[in-house]
Design goal:
Elements: E1 2-6, H1 7-10, H2 14-24, H3 39-48, H4 50-55, H5 83-89, E2 102-111, H6 114-120, E3 126-132, H7 136-156, H8 174-209, H9 213-216, E4 228-236, E5 239-247, E6 250-252, E7 271-274, E8 282-287, H10 289-294, E9 298-300, H11 309-315, H12 321-327, E10 331-334, H13 339-342, H14 351-361, E11 364-377
Parallel strand pairs: 10-11
Antiparallel strand pairs: 1-3, 2-3, 2-11, 4-5, 6-9, 7-8, 8-11
Helix pairs in contact: 2-8, 3-8, 5-7, 7-8
């Protein structure tokens, strides 16, 4: 989300904002939210996605125009979802989660393309809010359930794989059809989840700063998915064809004038959001034609880890990570005792180096660099 606020305006309120966000937004492993859903109610979330959140009073109608796929995909099959996934998903709608999931208050530290930044509503020293969360335990369970299905399908259809982790099934098979129905349901759950988190973040800013979200200019720039399969048209071997694009740890990066883009962004390309770590930076980019030609309209998702979570915990032993962050001007709150240790900045590659690679390769174009000010984590 963008705002009309500047870094200087926010600094006196920063700790209060972060503390209020931490109180208002459920975080942590297995966290339970304010929303309670029966199985039948959950099915509506799985079919409608972000539209369900709007109908329930979370968010603004114009948000959907700035969501990938307008915040929901067709083809969800609630009957392809296990009872365990329903059980895990019921209490977790409207929760941030743990690990590298976060809600961060940032400011625009540098702009690389003023024309595109203007089209996205970004300006120097502006305060932004970035949320990274997904389908929580629901999506995790869908993945766990269907990994076993796909491993059996590989044997059933006698598929030769270079790596067993590439477990798959033919597109027309019942296994693939059921998986896609369950995966779409999980994607829709995630869009609804982020819409709820967006709504509560706006409420907190309104309460702490005493101004309504419209007066604060808290508009959604974009909501983009990762870890998703999309059925898309791409040119393969000189021929246009439908393919199943798996963006696992990848982000869609469609070029200007692509029919799936919101009208406001047709001239500049799809906004691409790349988070870094809690101590350095995140980036806004836009998609390019070269990405369509070389990477099925995709770019990176984040910096990527250098250390495992266990290694990061060992490396941070005896340190006070929250104090270290505060000395850098970044106020961080986490629910989990070990979360800050797992998420130390040096556990990740420097995202600036990663962004330089995708920018120089031409598969996405740098627009703005965002520096953290305050962060809540699970």
């Amino acid at each position: 989300m963008r705002t009309d606020l500047t870094k200087a305006e926010i600094l006196p309120h920063l700790k209060g904002l972060v503390q209020a966000l931490h109180s208002a937004i459920p975080t942590g492993v297995g966290s339970r939210g304010k929303i309670r859903l029966s199985k039948e109610q959950e099915k509506h979330v799985l079919i409608k996605g972000a539209r369900w959140a709007l109908e329930a009073g979370y968010g603004m109608p114009e948000d959907l125009q700035h969501c990938e796929s307008h915040g929901s995909l067709p083809g969800a099959d609630p009957d392809a979802v296990s009872a365990k996934a329903y059980e895990r998903g019921g209490p977790q709608q409207g929760t941030l989660g743990s690990g590298n999931h976060f809600l961060e208050i940032q400011y625009v530290q540098e702009i690389y393309d003023e024309g595109i930044a203007n089209a996205l509503g970004l300006f120097p020293d502006q305060v932004t809010v970035m949320i990274h969360s997904g389908s929580r335990g629901f999506g995790h369970q869908v993945c766990t359930d269907y990994l076993a299905v796909m491993e059996n399908a590989v044997k059933k259809y006698k598929i030769e794989l270079p790596d067993r982790q590439l477990a798959c099934a033919p597109y027309s098979s019942p296994e693939a059809r059921n998986y896609l129905g369950a995966m779409v349901a999980a994607a829709n759950y995630a869009w609804a989840n982020r819409q709820c988190l967006n709504h509560w973040a706006r409420e907190v800013f309104q309460r702490v700063l005493g101004r309504p979200p419209k007066a604060l200019g808290m508009d959604l720039i974009y909501d983009v998915a990762h870890n998703i399969v999309k059925i898309e048209e791409h040119v393969v071997g000189g021929k246009k064809m439908k393919v199943a694009v798996h963006r696992k740890g990848a982000t869609r990066a469609f070029p200007p004038d692509h029919p799936e883009l919101p009208e406001a962004y047709k001239g500049v390309g799809q906004p691409v959001l790349i988070p870094g770590d809690m101590g350095r930076a995140s980036f806004v980019l836009v998609g390019t034609q070269k990405a369509m030609e070389e990477t099925f309209g995709s770019t990176c998702h984040g910096a990527g880890r250098l250390m495992s979570r266990h290694a990061a915990i060992r490396a941070s032993k005896g340190r006070h990570i929250q104090r270290e962050m505060e000395e850098k001007g970044i106020y961080v709150l986490a629910s989990g005792r070990e979360t800050l240790s797992e998420e130390i900045p040096e556990a990740y590659k420097d995202v600036t180096n990663v962004i330089n690679v995708v920018h120089n390769a031409g598969i996405s174009k740098m627009v703005a660099r965002l520096r953290p000010m305050g962060n809540i984590k699970g």
